[in-house]
Amino acid sequence: MRRCRAGTRSCSAAARATDVRLTALNVHPLKSGAIRPVRSVSVSPSGLADDRAWMLVDPDGHMVSAREVHELFTIVADTPATDATLDRALRLRAPGHPDLLLDHPVAARLPVRLFSLHLEATPAGPGADAWLREVLGHDVRLVWCDDPTRRSLQPGVSEPGDHAAFPDAFPVTLASTASLGRLNDWIVETALERGEDVPPPLPMSRFRPNVVVDGEVPFAEDGWTRVRIGDVELRAGKPVGRCVMTTIDPRTLETAKEPIRTLARHRRSPDGDTLFAVHLVPVSGGRIQVGDEVTVS
């Protein structure tokens, strides 16, 4: 495998000459909930269908994620986009609890906070809130984004009209298996230098990407400006700054130093962010499926 410095134009040029394919698709109907792999999914300007359309907030309306409540990883949320047999808007499942089935709520919207963003969302209702309090042991409320177009994206990076529901920053996140392989190599090197036991390779699930592609050049995606997956075109936003949520094992809910420790060494931006994967904004809609050819520029 050819190695080259992350984000260089030579990496991007090499990627153009390489056959790149879509290897995995992931939808997250509930922000910070369990990852829902799918074989195909519809894409609109707001992202993958139903991705991060639901979110938990605290009594003050501030977002609650797995950063604060690790157990959120154990809640399995499905919509018709992730389970074609489902005839309700949302189904929540958790070990030891009955399933919760919900329709799209029609209540008056309430103000919510997503980091520093002031947004509006529709509350799912007291029944859903009671179920979640029982599962998580925290005072939370479930809300739904009824209209993603109300949220504008980051000025200076996005374009007028760009919008999304409740992702952290942009509608779609793309990651590369080649980049993950290089990161895992670096993690091994870090452990050996420090005299530590070599950890098992990190899975892609730590980074919760919507779109996973293959290819031979690590971090070539840093230099991409446009991506076409099947018939759907997407525009590059910016590299993804990673947070401590990537250090939480979604199976055991335990935390560790990786991958942030190694990303800080090899993938730190001038602003101090630790980078892995890239944000994308859909330019056109359509349907994509695993195995689709990925064309980059």
UniProtKB/TrEMBL annotation:
Family matches, as Pfam families: MOSC, MOSC_N
InterPro entries per record: MoCF_Sase_C, MOCOS_middle, Pyrv_Knase-like_insert_dom_sf
MOSC domain mapped to chain residues: 140-297
Domain of life: Bacteria
Name of the protein in question: MOSC domain-containing protein
UniProt organism field: Nocardioides alpinus
Lineage of the species this protein comes from: Bacteria, Bacillati, Actinomycetota, Actinomycetes, Propionibacteriales
